[in-house]
């Protein structure tokens, strides 16, 4: 059985190095998300970053594979089978993501206290990179394509310690 450390991950070392240079400067939240987005556009890996088994996903829901984690950032690959989606949520830190396959359809919301208001949509396609920082990062994501989707997510937090990038889920009405 292979351990995570022994799996060949093309492009991961270069990505880690570049992100470490950015986070070492201690940028603000949005500045970090924007700088990592520029880097990710230049160094977006391919689906070969994951093993064939990891790329298969799970029929039970989307799967997140933590590929690297350290105190100030983590890199995860998220695998979404067609139709799989997240709950409405926000994040503990800034996030930058790049789409390798599939379509991540993102619905954005604003919290009005007792309800959410839908404020926008984004249809993120292969090769596209985007980023955001709290506050104002409430969203739900769904793979709307007919193929299994893979995306790379960089978070400004140590997922080894936190277990997840999600700060809060929202179970209030959307109006």
UniProtKB/TrEMBL annotation:
Q: List residues binding Fe cation.
A: 89, 91, 139
InterPro entries in the cross-refs: CDO_1, RmlC-like_jellyroll, RmlC_Cupin_sf
Query: 3'-(S-cysteinyl)-tyrosine (Cys-Tyr) crosslink: positions?
Result: 95-155
Q: Which GO molecular function entries does the Swiss-Prot or TrEMBL record give?
A: ferrous iron binding; oxidoreductase activity, acting on single donors with incorporation of molecular oxygen, incorporation of two atoms of oxygen
Q: Cite the CDD domains for this sequence.
A: cupin_CDO (cd10548)
Provide this UniProt record's keywords sorted from A to Z: Dioxygenase, Iron, Metal-binding, Oxidoreductase, Thioether bond
Q: From what superkingdom does this record's organism come?
A: Bacteria
Family note: Belongs to the cysteine dioxygenase family.
Q: What PANTHER family does this protein map onto?
A: CYSTEINE DIOXYGENASE (PTHR12918), CYSTEINE DIOXYGENASE TYPE 1 (PTHR12918:SF1)
Q: What is this protein called?
A: 3-mercaptopropionate dioxygenase
Organism name: Nonomuraea glycinis
């Amino acid at each position: 059985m292979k351990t995570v450390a022994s799996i060949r991950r093309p492009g991961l070392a270069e990505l880690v190095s570049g992100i470490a240079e950015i986070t070492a400067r201690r940028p603000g939240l949005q500045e970090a998300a924007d700088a990592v987005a520029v880097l990710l556009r230049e160094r977006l890996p391919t689906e070969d970053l994951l093993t064939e088994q990891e790329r298969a996903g799970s029929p039970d829901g989307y799967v997140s594979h933590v590929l690297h984690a350290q105190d100030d950032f983590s890199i995860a690959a998220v695998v979404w089978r067609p139709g799989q989606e997240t709950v409405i949520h926000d994040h503990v830190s800034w996030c930058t993501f790049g789409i390798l396959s599939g379509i991540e359809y993102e619905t954005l919301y604003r919290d009005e206290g007792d309800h959410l208001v839908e404020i926008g949509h984004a249809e993120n396609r292969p090769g596209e990179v985007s980023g955001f920082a709290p506050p104002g990062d409430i969203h739900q994501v769904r793979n709307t394509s007919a193929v299994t989707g893979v995306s790379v997510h960089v978070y400004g937090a140590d997922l080894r310690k936190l277990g997840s990038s999600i700060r809060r889920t929202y179970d209030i009405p959307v109006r």
